[in-house]
Amino acid sequence: MREEGFQLAYEEAGSGIPLILLHGNGEDRSYFRHQIKDLQNLRHIYALDTRGHGQSPRGTAPFTLNRFVRDLEEFMDQNGIKQAELLGFSDGANIALLFALKHPDRVTKLILAGGNLFPEGMDPKDLEEIQEEYKTATGFQKELLSLMVNEPHIQPEELKKLIMPVLVTAGSEDVILEEHTRLMAEAMPDSRLVILSGSHWNAAESPEAFNRMVRAFLAE
Q: How far apart are CA 169 and CA 185, in angstroms?
């Protein structure tokens, strides 16, 4: 159901083909500040704040990845965006992937940075720490942790339907297991895999290498 009056906060820059940026859990659109600055010369950038993050309201709807997918759909409708390229990081990658599975006709290119198909795609130590935090967390913090502990639930076979070009990337020292990242890439018909040197947050920590990779993919 549509939540009356709900609107996501966002930053807009550049012109041309729409490229929507989706940040990770507990962050906001400022995570992509280096990408906004660099890629606005190539694309019409929309950097969103996910529901309950940054300047976007929490609203009253369920705090789930599927709700965030619906929020993205409504955002695109509100702004007259029929099709777009999606670049998602971490939970943002999971939102982008779920959106592409639900609306493949609306996604022309897909960039998944540090995403996962299910919680067990994370390094066991990191997942265990998050699970322990989740047990004692309350309120909004528990909602945030729930997104990582209980979601997503995507089967590799489902990815076969994604026929748009896809870039799957992660860091060499990522919290997502490299074998899991490879599993994702191998499951999609038109994907390419890039493992960048660095951590889960390499778009912020190594923006030159990250942006170079993204630019090359967008130019294909």
A: 9
